[in-house]
Amino acid sequence: MTLAAGIDVGGTKCLGVVVDGSGVIVREVRRPTPTANLLVGVLQEIAHELGEHDTIGVGVPGLISRQGVIRSSPNMSTAIELPVRELLSDALGEHVWCDNDATCATLAEWQMGAGVGAHDMVLVTLGTGIGGGIVSGGVLQHGAHGHAGEAGHMVVDAHGDPCPCGQRGCWERYASGAGLARLSGGLSGEEVIGRARRGDGPAVSVVNTYCEWVALGLANLANFSDPDVMVIGGGVMEAADILLPPIRQHFARLLYAPSHRQHPRVVGAELGERAGAIGASLLHLHD
Fold first, then answer.
1. In CATH, what number does 118-269 get?
2. Are 280 and 16 in contact (CB under 8 A)?
3. pTM for this prediction
4. Candidates 3.30.420.40, 1.10.760.10, 3.40.190.10, 3.40.50.300; CATH matching 4-104+274-285
5. Phi and psi of 66, rounded to 5°?
6. Nearest Cα to 85, choosing from 18, 146, 149, 1?
7. CA 196, CA 127: separation in Å to the nearest integer?
């Protein structure tokens, strides 16, 4: 039975898994995310700790080339032109597959989660920032240079809030988990959602505004790509029960010509925090 290893490099943790031929996670390793200069060494340690495996893939945030070079990464500002795939392959003495972390999560949800059976799918992950991935015509999309799916840096307000990327008004400034905290005036996302659950009027208003921002970006993506299903993942969706209904309502209103088209399903992701690592383990099947 084939054992496929996958490692997801997140903002605060690296999560490694080994998945068997039935899609069952048989081993798991967690480590804090290191600085860029220590990244390859930590990935090597995780791979060794995961033990026996036949293939290994890695998902990394940021602009990742088709050759596995980190061009730029939001969580590792010094990881510029870092050939992580080549360096890790040399360190391990085996072939390594490498892709963007949200693209990996998209692959996992498409093959094993909320997008199973979809021919055309968009996934967005709402966390500290916003990642994204696209399946079109039954094929996972990478773009000409490996950078497809950077939905978080879609500009939704040309004169809006500054983004660390250097632009203004990027979607993730309003619709990420960090965006929810900013809209609340300083409360954490968890706190404002908790207050909204208890019926606090200002908190309910903040959550509704946040959901409208999420829906605006989803509508833009749907207008462009016409998917069967739109999957929303990330830490924010732990509150899917309170966020999904208003997101769907705003989305149905903001979508182009909503009364003259079939609407894509808007659903929550199913694989949780392991989606990126599971997807990384599947990269060898979709090279």
1. 3.30.420.40
2. no
3. 0.94
4. 3.30.420.40
5. -65, -15
6. 146
7. 19
Determine what percent of the chain is predicted with pLDDT higher than 90. Answer: 90
Tell me the C-alpha distance between 220 and 157, whole Å: 13
Spatial CA neighbour of 267 closest among 229, 235, 241 = 229
Same CATH fold assignment for domains 4-104+274-285 and 118-269: yes
Q: How far is 111 from 108, CA to CA, in rounded Å?
A: 5
Question: pLDDT tens-digit profile of 140-159?
Answer: 999 999 999 999 999 999 99
pLDDT band (50, 70, 90) for residue 72: confident
Q: Where are the domains of the chain?
A: 4-104+274-285, 118-269
Which residues, in sequence order, are bridge partners of residue 183?
A: none
Instruction: For residue 11, give the nearest of 127, 146, 172, 147 by alpha carbon.
Output: 127
